[in-house]
Design brief:
Blueprint: H1 2-30, E1 37-42, H2 49-62, E2 68-71, H3 72-78, H4 86-105, E3 109-113, H5 119-128, E4 132-137, H6 141-146, H7 152-158, E5 179-181, H8 188-200
Helix pairs in contact: 2-8, 4-5
């Protein structure tokens, strides 16, 4: 019995030591170490959220990490969620936030790309997470409209699309985000590097 307990204890200690030793060795080799976190990119459609998110993912993978991307549109399509009224949006945003929280608790760096127009919902998601980095992609709506290859802004203006954020539905910008990025004046590369620097803090 004592031998069995001792073996189990030693096995646990070896696993714990190996986990932290790997992190330390990896940091010494690469000079790069970040803790699990949720990077939450919010902004208007066409502001550059997903493009930035994918660039951050690419850079983190080159560092040997395994980040996860949660894209609001992809999740909405996957679960066949069609409502864009306020209640449906809030429920969808909270569901994405809860997914991010679970993944962060499992040791992942989670990059979320989501319009997420409601400040109160973003605050709720912040409270769910341990390390939450809110990134407001603050690109002006005029620039977003110029980038609109599918013409969805024009459809929203003409009334073909209802409850469209920035046109017929409100967007409440973050009051105190960790980062403020404008893709009209910053390159995607520069935006991604800003996020990675914030992750390292």
């Amino acid at each position: 019995m004592i031998v069995s307990i001792s073996i189990s204890l030693i096995d646990s200690l070896v696993k714990i030591f190996s986990y932290y030793a790997f992190d330390e060795i990896w940091y010494r080799i690469t000079g790069f170490s970040v803790s699990p976190a949720v990077v939450f990119l919010t902004g208007l459609s066409g502001s550059g959220k997903t493009t930035i998110a994918k660039k951050v993912i690419e850079k983190l993978r080159k560092k040997g990490l395994s980040p996860v991307l949660l894209d609001g549109d992809e999740i909405r399509n996957a679960i066949k969620l069609t409502g864009f009224d306020e209640e449906s949006r809030k429920r969808h945003n909270l569901n994405v936030g809860y997914m991010a929280k679970i993944l962060e608790s499992q040791g992942k760096i989670v990059i979320v790309s989501l319009i997420s127009p409601y400040d109160d919902i973003r605050k709720q998601i912040r409270e769910m997470c341990n390390k939450f980095i809110e990134v407001h992609v603050s690109t002006d709506i005029k620039v977003c409209m110029e980038r609109d290859p599918k013409g969805i802004y024009q459809k929203a203006i003409s009334g073909e699309i209802k409850d469209f954020t920035g046109i017929s539905a409100p967007y409440y910008p973050p009051q105190n985000p960790e980062l403020l990025l404008d893709t009209a004046s910053m390159s995607i590369e520069a935006c991604a590097l800003k996020i990675i620097e914030q992750l390292k803090k």
